[in-house]
Amino acid sequence: MRTTLIMSVMSTLLFFSHSVLAISPPAEEPILWVSGNISQSNSPRGVELDEAMIFGLEQGTIHTSNHVVAEVVEYKGPTLASLLEYVGAKGKQVQVIAWDDYVVTISLEDIKKYGILLATHEAGVRMTIDDKGPLFVVLPFTEHAELRNDFYYSLSVWQVREIVVE
């Protein structure tokens, strides 16, 4: 009886530890933290992602200009929707937080509708924290005239550090 009880407790703990930490921890230094209303985790804070994990997500490309770059430039990186799917996002919006604590809220509806990127590359060059990187929220302004206004321009967060699903 005692052995059965111990085995049952161990199985339960193993099940919960596996389900709580379903995503492997990053092998390198994390560059993005995702928390909030998510079903996956790999740390007590939520999900920590390193560069390799970011590059393992579904990648997209947007050719656009924006409020800080006049000419059309190619941006590449994971789709924000693929990141949210990866972490099991269950909310209706996300807060995107930059390293300088700039915060915006983006609806999941807009993320899906416009194919918003979490760009890692601008014009084929990996963005660094000294530029707009390592991650930059990019919207397809050139393709969608309705995005060319102060509200949507304000969502173009660069030097993204954290995403909180609400």
Characterise this structure.
With 166 residues, the protein is of the alpha+beta class. The chain is built from five helices and eleven strands; from the N terminus they run H-E-E-H-E-E-H-E-E-H-E-E-E-E-H-E. It has helices spanning 2-20, 51-55, 80-86, 108-114, 150-154, and strands at residues 32-36, 47-49, 59-64, 73-78, 93-98, 103-107, 117-119, 121-122, 125-126, 136-138, 160-165. The strands form three sheets. It has a five-stranded mixed sheet with strand order 2-1-11-5-6. It has a four-stranded antiparallel sheet with strand order 3-4-8-9. Strand 5 and strand 6 (103-107) form a beta hairpin. It is globular and about 40 Å long. The termini are far apart.
Q: How would you classify the helix and strand content by structural class?
A: alpha+beta
Helix content: 25-40%
Strand content: 25-35%
Low-pLDDT residue spans: 2-20
Shape: globular
- Total strands: the figure is 11
Order of helices and strands: HEEHEEHEEHEEEEHE
* Helical segment count: 5
Roughly how many Å is the radius of gyration? 18 Å
**Beginning-to-end CA distance, first to last residue:** 45 Å
* Mean pLDDT, all residues: 90
Largest beta sheet: what is the strand line-up?
2-1-11-5-6
| Oligomer class | single chain
- Major beta sheet, specifics? 5 strands, mixed
